[in-house]
Amino acid sequence: MSSHLRQDSAVAKVLVLDDDETKRYIIGSWLRRAGHTVVEAVDGADGLALLSAAADTELPELAVVDVKLPDMSGFEVCEQIKADPRTASLPVIHVSATAVELSDRTQGLHRGADAYLTDPIAPDELLATVTAALRYARARRRAERLAARVATLNSSTLAVYAAKDGRAFAEAAAAGAATLMESPAIAVALSPDNLTLFLASTNGRGQAGRPPRTAEPDVTVSPEEPRLLDLLTDQVLGDGTGTHTAVLSGANWRALVGGEESSRADVFPDEVALILARTKRGRPPVALAIDATALAEVDDRELLSQLAQACALALEALRSRSEEHALVLTLQRSFLPDRLPEVPGVELAVRYQPAADDAEIGGDFYEALETPDGLLLAIGDVAGHSLKAAMIMGEVRHALRAYAIEGHDPRALLERLDALLVRLRPAMTVTVCLVLVEPGARRIQVANAGHIPPVLRYPDGSTRYLTEHGPLLGLNLPHPPAVGHDVPADSTLLLLTDGLIEVPGDDLDDSLNELGSSLSRAPGEVEDLCDVLLDTFGKGKTDDIALLAARFH
What we know:
Helix content is 40%, strand content 23%. The chain has 553 residues and is α+β, with helices and mostly antiparallel strands.
């Protein structure tokens, strides 16, 4: 006999509801001799009150109900039992010595009864019917609970895959294990950059050491010594892959996690089930720990194993994404200038800040180089966010350097870049703003191809956007001549990409006005100025940011 069949056929607590004392005694004695626990009620109201007063863990698992009761029919009692969510799954067996017609039996079954017996009843028939009803009800409850837990497993899996960093991942893993296994839980995982080990612990044990089933687990996440994961791995997984589980004593667990000093990990009343999962050899595994008593059945072990495997796959995906983003970001930075020219009378500062770690890279770029006609400053942005955008950014920047060294003026530079894009990258557009600082640094020429206008701060702190511009590059349209502007000594020019000021849903003009106001109050030194602007406008942005500031002495 399988373990589930043995459990489903096990003895139970049975309610016997009958107004005939002799009949209650006979049925009760049959059930007690078979090992069942019997509670009795004399009429419908008494039986329903008994069920209502019982705690969920003390409810009978089956009711034997007489059809003819003094206060209400057994059919009505059954309907009320089935209508209450707490007792809806309680099997009801009708018994009767008088309501024995076919119409009585069919009415009883239609109104919710699970079986219908008529006198005379043989003891073996009653016991067999009780066992069959219990088997069916228990199997159904087990299947319903398993379905609910599978749904919990799916939602927990989605949560760990949605995590954007190591801290969020550890928190989601611990919460998922606690909810799925109805147990205190610990998750230990190394961050995707392999620099920080996070330990996430659920707080609050609830009844019998378990969190309340309907409550969202409260999770605390803290950094730990990386050696902890090595100790857990040596204890369970070694250098293997897949999932492996071990049951540790409470003392062994506390010794592994740091003894009495690691109270945040000491959330288990006794033995601890520790499971580790790894998808690739040589990669850091994920560790989950729960109360060992939560692994009472085969289903429990299988569900925990699936959650651990999902966590390992999710962390591997997060780690791969982090590595890919770091690689692409390194490639993108290699396209940008590694130094700025030193030009008498001009002080330069640049800042480049990539978008948040989970965002794709963009095509923002800047340039500063000496040409036969003066110092050329450039800032631009390739449309889109992808590796392709970064590659095109590199092509445009290198082409700009080549054309500028040939001595072309700003307008001619834009025309040549436009022709290059139309010919080689016909589906792409680029915004570029060029500023030529004439020798002596008292006059500039601005040629803008659809980019955010540069802003000039005068010595008195007032600001003005240089708004003259032409079409984007890549549209094969004519570009207007560059526009000249005088720049008094101690003026500051700021070139920027839209990632600094654009906020979804906000008006761009309002953002530009706010930037101009901040620039007027910013420090005079261009390095400090860039830091202040990034701190004010650059936090939490989903686009790359490039700043190029020039102060004319």
